[in-house]
Amino acid sequence: MATQSENNTHFIEINPQPPQKTQQQSRAELFLSRIARLLASELNTLFESQSSKQNPEVSQPDSRKTSAESIFSFLVNCATIAQLTEAELLYTTCLVEMLITAQLNSDSPSTDLIIRNNLGTLLLCSVIITTKMLRDSPYTNKEWARHFGVPLADLNKSERIFLSRHNFQVSVPESAIMTMLHAIEIFDCKHTTHRSHVPERV
């Protein structure tokens, strides 16, 4: 992951094409879609805020939107590769949420970590850190780099930047994970009347 000034890093883009659905995946996909909708909403709020700060004289904010479908597709890909559990998905979401909040509260554009063309890198780094924190034998960066077709050196660099923006404090307490689950449920209630069982494993 890199800021605007670190253009030599290979960005991983999120795939706008939804994955093929199967009946067995439907419950897991529904949970992932709820996470994706929440993240898309928060990311779009962040980008609109950034646009207003950078161009205060422009009355019309940036109208481009990050789609929940593209985030959903990318997360399904990661979840399928690593067989992510419910707890791991929530942990991943917490790590992303922490960076969004920090960037929203920052007055310095030079410290912006999250930009539109590095969202895939952001999500992947969050998944990588999550599995390293919660698993005894996580996927290696080399395996992830191979899956996504990116140079290992770039992925390692992105992971270091991700960790540094967290001040190398990436332990998420159980209370924060439960708060995130509650936030997803509240957001879901506000934006859809369809409720579902939260899956045990994706």
UniProtKB/TrEMBL annotation:
<dbReference type="InterPro" id="IPR013922">
    <property type="entry name" value="Cyclin_PHO80-like"/>
</dbReference>
<protein>
    <recommendedName>
        <fullName>Cyclin N-terminal domain-containing protein</fullName>
    </recommendedName>
</protein>
<dbReference type="Pfam" id="PF08613">
    <property type="entry name" value="Cyclin"/>
</dbReference>
<feature type="region of interest" description="Disordered">
    <location>
        <begin position="1"/>
        <end position="26"/>
    </location>
</feature>
<feature type="compositionally biased region" description="Polar residues">
    <location>
        <begin position="1"/>
        <end position="10"/>
    </location>
</feature>
